[in-house]
Amino acid sequence: MVRPSGPPAQLSESARPSKHREHPSKSPKRRREGKRLQRRGDGHEQLLSETERRRLPSQHEHSDLPGHIQDPASQRLTWNKPPVNVLVIRKIRDESLVGPFKELCRFLVEEKQMMVYVERRVADDASLSMDETFGSIRNQLCTFREGYDDISDCVDLIICLGGDGTLLYASSLFQGSVPPVMAFHLGSLGFLTPFKFESYKTEVAKVFEGNAAITLRSRLKVKVVKDMLQRTGQESYGREPQQQEHNGLPHGHTSSEAGKVTLQLQVLNEVVVDRGPSSYLSNVDLYLDGRLITSVQGDGVIVSTPTGSTAYAAAAGASMIHPNVPAIMVTPICPHSLSFRPIVVPAGVELMITLSPDARNTAWVSFDGRKRQEIQHGDCIKITTSCYPVPSICCHDLVYDWFESLAQCLHWNVRKRQARLADISDSSDTEN
To answer: What residue spans carry the region label Disordered (predicted)?
Structure first.
């Protein structure tokens, strides 16, 4: 791909979905060679990308040993060839990030000779377009638009500037295999952003050299299916539960091929089903591998990944789970029945959420806080573990980074830390 010399470069029209094409253009060079689906020893399917420039070794080592528990320290990133294309994601509407964004882009373009991809709305920001000293760098940036341009085959590495929301946004851009993500903490929350920007040159150089620790953050594959449950008439909703169910499934439950899939997403944090604007409690049925587990009556229910256990689920009373634990969490939001507590189920099972037959109102669902939509009688939400995790690059290692993020964000041992700093300061004053 030739480095642009005029205005910020844009992805070719042929890389866009057909419904959004405007003008024909040359397709960007593909950077990936293929994908391979491998079954790990713990029974879960893990998609490994055989890319031209990166590989995640040791993810599948010893996979032929039954019952083998993988050592998290073996998850490391190495490069077959140095990375060339870097996607830089900046938190929008935060002027404090303009300076760090300029520094990073200048470093990547001038010193590292990288091809840098940014969002068009970021490149068109007034603070950048009016800066003449940054003009030469800006003209060399490749831009894209979310929902129009497909950059999944063009990026070797992702660098995020902001809070946890920037990493969630990066995950949403890649509905298949995700490049390694390096996240700098420049926002309000830092559970997922272990790097400090003050030493960005050193840290980025280390990542380019390879041999960095990786946390594979599992995602959820979510399907919204309309008319999955055939209505059998209003009178059927008034029957006793014993009459409505057959082998754990309600009457009218169709095969997995029935219904219309209106939305399919990869979700990094959580799927939230709530009562929406209604004043009534939501009433939804929760199924696990086709079996009715319980009816959830309350403000809603959260289905989250271990990564999402420090987000909305934590506020709803769930435990915080390390991202390397293969699990799916189900957390009720203010349940009417206090006996329903947060539960953890094995990764790989299929959860299904539907409106209860006697529900007095509809429900609403959102995915990582986005794409919110209404769920009516006859619709269902299917959730299972995705085979496309997000490889998040660690600053130190995946255990230390996680506990350090908890200590920083939840203010653990603040008094002890302050006391230690005071002792260090007093000792240095005494020596002087």
So the answer is: 1-76, 233-255
